[in-house]
Amino acid sequence: MKRIISALSAFILAVTSIGTGLTASAESSEESTPSGIAYSDIGSRIDSYIKEREAGLASCAVSVFDANGTVFDGYYGYADIANGITADAETVYEWGSTSKMLVWTSIMQQWERGNIELDADIRDYLPDGFLTKLQYPDEKITMINLMSHNAGFQESFYENQEAAPDDVYDTLEDAVKACECWQASHVGEYTVYSNWGTALAAYIVEQTSGEDYVSYVHENIFEPFVTENTARTVGHGTGLGLAVTKRVIENHGGKICVETADSDYTKMFVIRL
Question: DSSP H helical segments within the chain, as ranges?
């Protein structure tokens, strides 16, 4: 079995407040979303959307809230199809590509601190000769290209489904090197979703910060999230709206903190209500 990367297994809860975008007509006091959906219609609109797609859906959870609290909660499908267990508020989902927010937040923090220029060639931040499969080596690849998924990289395989502990790469650098994919198109020619390109950006964070990526994320995103606002502003903030999440939970009498699970690679947000 080929080894895979598990440099970061992080569960992230990122919530954005839409409170400032609410509208109310002069004739009615009922609030609506920026797109014009009345709060009273949100549930039925989401139900209809899910109904049209339920044939290919295992389960999902949907929550809509504003600055004043929860507007709608909905749970669809099954947490365990074989045993007929329906999805609910306790159902746990894989974090999937929401973890990419950690990468791009880290990149923007490095930009804020003057360690990265978004329009510079990413090879300026990589060891010499690090990229070995460029079809168009004379074309500049910027961090904006990586963030926009148009650097030309397109992987055709996935090694990150599951692995035993002994199959995990020792470092992020090892994983990025081992899984390097060919540059399939000119820079900026096509938008092609690239997990490898995101991993490469995470490795650049290691290069520009001088820290391994796991430690960087914990110290600069997770830890500041659970401190007071005045402490968070020292590092320019996370830019994810996580303070909104913390405040909503506290308004409901709850608490959120960062904890380390049994695995060496797992840190998670734990919410207690």
Answer: 39-53, 100-112, 143-148, 172-178, 195-209, 213-217, 223-225, 229-232, 242-251
- CATH number of the domain where residue 205 is located: 3.40.710.10
Dihedral of the alpha carbons of 215, 216, 222, 226, in degrees to the nearest 10: 100
Output phi, psi for 70, to 5 deg.
-75, 130
Q: Is 214 domain-assigned?
A: yes
The pTM of the whole model exceeds 0.85: no
- Identify whether the C-beta of residue 62 lies closer than 8 Å to the C-beta of residue 72: yes
Handedness of CA 81, 83, 88, 93 (dihedral sign): negative
Average pLDDT over residues 183-195: 94
Q: Which domain holds residue 142?
A: 97-250
Tell me the C-alpha to C-alpha distance, in Å, between residue 127 and each of 33, 133, 173, 199: 48, 15, 11, 15
Strand runs labelled E in the chain: 9-11, 59-66, 69-80, 85-86, 255-260, 266-272
Question: What is the count of structural domains for the chain?
Answer: 1
130 located within any domain:
yes
pLDDT per residue over 2-29, tens digit each?
Answer: 333 333 333 233 333 333 333 333 344 6
Q: Evaluate whether residue 123 is within a structural domain.
A: yes
**127-156 per-position pLDDT tens digit:** 999 999 999 999 999 999 999 999 999 876
Q: Name beta bridge partners: 65.
A: 70
CB atoms within 10 A of CB 130: 17
Residue for token pair 């959120």:
256
- Summarised one tens digit per residue, pLDDT across range 30-43 is 788 888 899 999 99
